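Ticket #723: bound-state structure for iron/sulfur cluster.
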Amino acid sequence: MYLPERPSPKGKRVSLFVTCIVDMVYPAVGMSVVDILEHLGVEIDFPENQTCCGQPGYNSGYRNDAREVALHFLRVFADADVIVVPSGSCAAMIRHEYLTLFADDPVWLPHAQRAASITWEFTEFIVQGLGITDLKLRLPQPQTFAIHDACHGLRILGLGEEARTLLANVENAALEDLKDADACCGFGGLFSVKMADVSGAMLQKKIDCINHCPAATIITGDTSCMTQMNGGLSRQKSVKRVRHIADVLAEGLKK
Amino acid sequence: MKVDANNFVSVAQIAVNDPDLQEAVSLGTYNGYSKRLVAMFSNGHEHGEAMRQQAAAMRRRAIQKLPDLLELAEKNMTANGIKVLWAETAEDVRNMVLDIAKKRNAKLVAKSKSMISEEVALNHAFEENGIEVVETDLGEYIIQLNKETPSHIVMPVMHRTKREIRDLFMRELNMPFTDDAAEMTAFIRKHLRQVFVNADIGISGGNFIIAESGSLCLVTNEGNGRMVTAMPKVHIGIVGIEKVIETIEDYATLTQILPRSATGQQMTVYMQMINGPRREDEPDGPDEVYVILVDNGRSKVYATKYAEALTCIRCGACLNACPVYQVTGGHAYGWVYSGPIGAVITPALTGLENATPLPQASSLCGKCKQVCPVDIDIPRMLLDLRHELVEKGMTDKIFDVGLKAWSIGNRSPKLFIMGGAVARFGTRFLPNRLPGPLGGWTKYRDFPQFAPKPFRELWKERKKGKPS
Ligand code: SF4
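RESOLUTION: The complex was predicted; output attached.
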């Protein structure tokens, strides 16, 4: 697939796309992203008309409906220099699927290509975009973590090392291995509703791995997968929880 | 084989609650997946990836040149003394095979493993015509004995535990009790020997056909493939038209990557290149070799955006790697080809209306593409199929309405904020039981409460300098 050149985001103003789910369900994750980016001296803008990237419709085959939502996104972020997204899945939607959605549209394809070229997943932006691997953070107490590699960040964007590198440099944070860390949690958007039993069985395998993991907290880069895993952990009264990486990093800022 | 893919959801539900199936499929897929990893990358990650890209390139080249290669293959096979037949439909295949069987007055047919013979329901045709047919691949033999269909393209009986298989042998063949897999295999081996000796016709599939040399290639482990193709007087190879490759060098690469991907072996025990019937100066081999080239929908797929699926070399790696297959096994997919590639091939070959749930049977995690030795972009094709479902009106109306509302709500910031407010209100009261189709969610998971204030409000407050 044709992928546009990616201009360096260094020194540029960041337009934050928090994603619909962070906006409505996990606003604290969005604030953590803001905290970390400000800590790095990044200028941040939040285009207030933003909604969703269009992924739920696109992944269910409703391309015309998804296209309308994606168009709205392109309009809202038309002036952005850099777009940062705290979700591998939504970043992958903008970076890859927009090019499919607008492939036959000479008017909007250039906009889609531009958006694709300036969109970064949160950890990717810090490590690859800014070239920063040590955020100079210190957690108030020693904690153990393990990483669940969310599928789209891992297999579409090729992420995984970024989060590990950032965490390894946080004082008081110890990293453990999660068995089958790269196995899907079973979320898959509407899949989790349409094929609830299959999704539930996939989730159970993930929960078993989490419960056997020596780490107290599992970290991931996608709040949707986090919702799936925490939904199961909470239902089964497990003491383990999954947190978004931005939240954990932001905890290290507190003096 | 009859297509029964529209019941995916209900068959899968039974499967995820079947402890024997869960035990067997977990173990089978885990073994396949982990052995593949070792074998593929035993010479380093880069080497393994390079091998994948090389295999993908040659399979794509072969499919691009397919019409020419098929002609060349026919010419060279014919020159080698192989009788080449072209079958457009499943029925054509059955008629051709039955014709040959009747001409030879055949009473007993020995088969080695062939998915395409399952596809065209060959065994059934033999039975209807009073010809005995025996599967000689151990897995297929078990399937035949238990009157089932294969649930995996490489390990047809993956859905059964060793215990279940032992009980079957004891029940059907009076095998003495044993827990030892080697003893069980030895017992069946003795049982099958006589079949090879007595069979009038041997039937095999074909992993590849090499166009430049006119060779039918078989990659097998149990040795039954060699017996079936060498002992009976007639050998019939049934092969899909997409299996043609260009050169012997291509075969060299593909025979390295196929066993690594399929069973985690560097190489299979047997590798055959069949170049025709017994020659004058040869002591044994069949008098006649037929190759039936089967279309059965493939040429239709050739012209679509699913043509990429025709490069599949049927290694089964995507099945083993698939988190959906790992919990459902193969029968839920309702046809010969299961797992991620089945979810593409079944609708593509038999019609989307016959397999509407299959494109949905994926979380789009992308592992299938990651492990595929020829780098087939299965998630891309599943997305295209989902789009087709919507375009053709084959989706649930409730989702049509829901997604339409979603789309309208997300084009307007005002409606988006309102939608959030409604959900915030709703999830406060319904954390454990969501209504309508969303009830699937709360069957296994709690639903998170929407935050009292959305991010956009927190952001405004922060900009105004209020504490967040
Ligand atoms: S799609 Fe790829 S991984 Fe799946 S069976 Fe075919 S060749 Fe193997």
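RESOLUTION NOTES: Residues 138-251 of chain A form a domain with the Rossmann fold fold (CATH 3.40.50).
TICKET STATUS: resolved
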